[in-house]
Amino acid sequence: MPLSIQDFFVPLLFFSSIASAATVEHVFQVKNVVVKPLCKEQMIPTVNGSLPGPTINVREGDTLVVHVINNSTYNITIHWHGVFQLKSPWMDGANMISQCPIQPRNNFTYRFDITGQEGTLLWHAHVVNLRATLHGALIIRPRSGRPYPFPKPYKEVPLIFEQWWDVNIELLNLQPAPICDAYLINGLAGDSYPCSENRMFKLKVVQGKTYLLRIINAALNTHLFFKIADHNVTVVSVDAAYTTPYVSDVMILTPGQTVDALLTADQPIGKYYMSISPYISANSLAPVPPGHDIRSLIIYEGAKSTASPSMSLLPSGTNAIPTAHRFSSNITSLVGGPYWTPVPGQVEEKMFVTMGLGLDRCPPETKCNGPLGQHIAGSFNNRTFLMPETISLQEAYFYNISGVYTDDFPDQPPMKFDYANFSVRTDSEYEMMFPERKTSVKTLKFNSTVEIVVQNTGIISPESHPMHLHGFNFYVLGYGFGNYDAIRDAEKLNLVNPQMHNTVGVPPGGWVVLRFIANNPGAWMFHCHMDAHLPYGIIMTFIVQNGPTPETSLQPPPSNLPQCTHDPTIYESPTTNVDLPY
């Protein structure tokens, strides 16, 4: 029988004995429902019957408890994107890394503390493509009595950007991924699409008031530009890390990124479009629909109902890449702000990681639909990551189970080549197109400082990839185009007030330099946050070793952690290219 909310006694909020800290409790009923954003009714998995899913509101220092009841027909996990999960790595929700999936007619309770971060994050499913409809906002406010490091806004407004397909979710696993049919803002497609002309998100504002926009890109595969007609915004946080106030008329968000921005209603009374459009950085293998922008509406109090909204012109064509780079590279951290820490100077682990797409050889007498008649594969230092099949990687590490993974992920690619402008001139360069398929990890000593140069390659397509690290924020010391030069480019790195992220867009045919402190024991994914690229294997995993005390060591998993069993009647996100078990 399906589980119900009555199976749990769940008061919404328990106040603890610690001043200004609380236990915030939610029930997530995952179930299939019928929705109709466009002209066609579609059955989708949802949390509590809504798209997007429920917003979680907590304060820094709170304990969050979420009971997930899986009454859908899918294996699922829920990932708390950007939450550090200090002392709670079993709660990360990374499918087959921190846990096996929650199977249909089963449940699991996530419980973790939220410490050392404030701002806007998101939660989402972490089984391939289910994030399309299983996602929502996770808002972390300061502890009671602590102000924001910017003027208090009149009102806070979540804006969630989504992709929509008028097909069964199982079909999203076709490779290459099908082109989406629409984009949504807070679940609504707006007047750019048939059958949704009268269904548009509308924000009513009062002239002179300031609003905090909590912006989330929950789209599966697409970076998105965002712009408000005739208005500037002031960015005050990215990925729940405070920034130096940065004024801009346009912003770019990769899948999984969040931005907090102050909007002051300082224009004449009227109506103004808020618009998003896809950022096409190259000949993407995760295609996006052509054509129009996707719009929502700001309506000033007192605006005439007959007033025509002001339009905004979003970047496109040749100005898209420089516009995206200008916004991304100009953000800096708020030095001295809440939870700011100086950049660590001494680096114990240095890695140069080539990242992008490669090929997997087509089986004999089989027709494959990728370049050169092969399959598409992900490549991290010429490795394609294979997910474990019978036990989560973190359990294999904790219980010292052999045969699940190897501890040999390389710090460098197997050979040097023209990374950004790849061409095949030798047999060795041809072999670089075919990464080794392997479940390999990189082990880090507790509290070591790690620096990673992520070099985007042009082996197949030099598009921008959004790289997401679980369990940590990282300093983004620099961005650039072309091949990274350790002498020339190191002099340009920002070691004073670099932006902090959990997800960063690596420029097309370019690079980023990241640094973080490995102070969180457990197994942590580092992967492309375009879901179309997860089955390809643009993934690696760090294992952070235990510290010197029980407080800094990986603890045993909860007794009710889901176990892996294979049921062929359950949809487990198969792909046509890569065999993933769940």
TrEMBL record:
Gene Ontology CC annotations of this record: apoplast
KW Secreted (keyword) present: yes
Record-listed E.C. numbers: 1.10.3.2
InterPro entries registered for this protein in UniProt: Cu-oxidase-like_N (IPR011707), Cu-oxidase_2nd (IPR001117), Cu-oxidase_C (IPR011706), Cu-oxidase_fam (IPR045087), Cupredoxin (IPR008972), CuRO_1_LCC (IPR034288), CuRO_2_LCC (IPR034285), CuRO_3_LCC (IPR034289)
Gene3D superfamilies hit by this protein: Cupredoxins - blue copper proteins
Keyword terms: Apoplast, Copper, Glycoprotein, Lignin degradation, Metal-binding, Oxidoreductase, Repeat, Secreted, Signal
Necessary cofactors: Cu cation
Main localization of the protein described in the UniProt heading: secreted
Ranges where the Plastocyanin-like domain occurs: 30-144, 156-280, 408-546
Superkingdom classification of source: Eukaryota
Entry annotated with the keyword 4Fe-4S: no
GO molecular function, one term: hydroquinone:oxygen oxidoreductase activity
GO BP, sorted A to Z: lignin catabolic process
Signal peptide range: 1-21
Compartmental location: Secreted, Extracellular space, Apoplast
Cofactor note: Binds 4 Cu cations per monomer.
Coiled coil (UniProt feature): none
Reactions the enzyme catalyzes: 4 hydroquinone + O2 = 4 benzosemiquinone + 2 H2O
Job description of the protein: Lignin degradation and detoxification of lignin-derived products.
Homology family: Belongs to the multicopper oxidase family.
Protein name (database record): Laccase
Species in which this protein is naturally found: Brassica carinata
